[in-house]
Amino acid sequence: MxxxxxxxxxxxxxxxxxxxxxxxxxxxxxxxxxxDKDKNRFRIAKRIxxxxxxxxxxxxxxxxxxxxxxxxxxPATTHFKIVEKSILFKKHTFVEKPLCTRLTEVxxxxxxxxxxKITLMSGDQYIYHDGINKIKKILSKGQLGNILFINSxxxxxxxxxNDVDVKLNFSTHxxxxxxxxxxxKKVKKVKNYDIKILQKNISDVSFINLEFKQKIYANIxxxxxxxxxxxxxxxxxxxxxxxxDDNLPGEILIANKSILPLHKNxxxxxxxxxxxxxxxxxxxxxxxxxxxxxxxxxxxxHFYKCIINKKVxxxxxxxxxxxxxxxxxxxxxx
Length: 334
Description:
The protein folds into 2 domains: 5-123 and 295-328, Rossmann fold; 127-289, Dihydrodipicolinate Reductase, domain 2, CATH 3.30.360. It is α/β, with parallel strands linked by helices. It is globular and about 70 Å long. Helices cover 29% and strands 30% of the residues. The N and C termini lie far apart (46 Å). It has 9 helices and 16 strands. The strands form 3 sheets. It has an 8-stranded mixed β-sheet, with helices on one face. Strands 3-2-1-4-5-6 form a 6-stranded parallel β-sheet, sandwiched between helices. Helix 4 (79-88) runs parallel beside helix 5 (103-116) and helix 7 (166-181) crosses helix 9.
């Protein structure tokens, strides 16, 4: 019989109740505590599980020796101190993304976690997303040819935050997706342009350009000041292209389209004389369907496996978080 892990959740704001619901559905986890500074949030927690202990003090969780693991869903700027304390009390720790806002903080926390021999993992749903994992398999089989360009858009009306900007809140998803499907290839150049509209020091719109050493380019466009909800990923390959709309989970479109240069000397300047020297491939594409399971369920299951079996490689552990934060550290203000 598998060991049941006793756990607690800290933070019952926007995302906390969603995590709590998933925890109560997991047969390997027994959630005992819910902590938040606002007592009014306890009513929401009690509706999910009425036997929960509640507290406004995080030390009540850390001092409880029966608690094996802690799920932290507080604002990003509070993560470092809470996570550090959780590790020092030897609690396995799951933190909603971003794990921290600074690269130095991430390095310190993983160093401490290794010393204390506990599992530290960030919650990053797209690493555990069935659609993204399906796309990764498609790329690994070379169905698109050489990857040339990736475009990722994450736009919506809200939710506007005042603790982190849209770049740290939204683009971390896109960075995780791109790094993951490219097997964490090294980024050569990073460019970023932000637009601040609603608040003085917090960007509402952000454009990010990445250049990888393998001459793969990626563009990320994020905004919480937009009239439509758009979550779209486009991958351009030398043979075919791929389109995935996260608003339509369960299907991936392979576009059998490409453009091939016909001129022999590729170093020749592409002026009007050579403008028509291309072959356009436009064939019928195909849809690939996949079974979609809630990513939050997948990542919590993975966290449990990492705790009970140290041989299980944590997908959003040290390597993943350092790769994401190394890029973010190159942005302005980070």
